[in-house]
Amino acid sequence: MIQRREFLAAPVLLAAQETKFRVAVVGTEHGHVNGFLNAARKRTDVEVVGPIVFEDRAKLKGEKVEAVACFTSTDRHLEVAKLCAALKLPMMMEKPLATTNEDAREMAKLSASAGIAIFVNYETTWYRSHAELWRFFKEEKAAGRIRKMVAMDGHQGPKEIGVGPEFLGWLTDPVRNGAGALFDFGCYGANLMTWMMDNQKPLRVVASVKRNKPEIYAKVDDEATVLVEYEGAQGIIEGSWNWPFSRKDFEVYGEKAYAHAFGGNSVRRRKVGDKLEETIVPAELKPDEADSISYLKAVTRRKMQPGGLSSLGNNLVATEILVAARESVRSGKVVVLR
Description:
Rossmann fold; 338 residues; five-stranded parallel beta sheet; alpha/beta; Dihydrodipicolinate Reductase, domain 2
């Protein structure tokens, strides 16, 4: 999979007789909006309306758009989903899906009742390395049953890397973000592990968080570790605002092999019987699945249905993991999910 900003080498050209894909940007407080807009500017097949903060139905209805890309704080996703459902517009939101299970389930109901796609965008969805892990474990079946997964995501901290004041404001609000690093970066591991475990709900979740920099992050955690237990397998999610550098790495261990995805473009793996670990350069993704804009366009124009890492099915479970982790921190107990 390719990283959508770093590997779009040339503009995507408008196919003959194809109309431009008009997408409305709702909300600008999520800093990932900049990457979306920068990618859109390189394309001739896309027209972004805005970015405009559409606060009411009338303004959005007045724009002839095909879909919505949501860049609000996480706690406002349901509000935007209600607007999209009323207008019958597909909606893609930035990760994670929700701050509560109630909001997540309500969005799933809206998607079903309105007949619209509602799905979630993660940067890591477009990593070629993750597609290679899926192929190795699920299609080639080279590793046997999954036994352990470790997801390591984060950076030095939002303030340390210089995010804008609006983004920083809600990231460090326990209500608007759901937590601190636990939700901001724990969501990647919850999403990836749910995917690799075929959307099954884990048995139990237990979590621990730290506030290593209270002078900066007074209200939320900046360090989170979550243990996710499945029948016969275990996942460890490490979300942090304390890494010495940015990282999004994912390790998966099976009965007969392991594979490690390092960022978007490199996989190292080893099978039982191999003397050495080998490095794999993953194949490019299909065009409609190579980046968030192409995917949103393909889903909106009914070339495909949301699936895998983006799907509501996955993200309902991922939300349950995150909420259970937050409750485990609050109670100091293991949270049983099934």
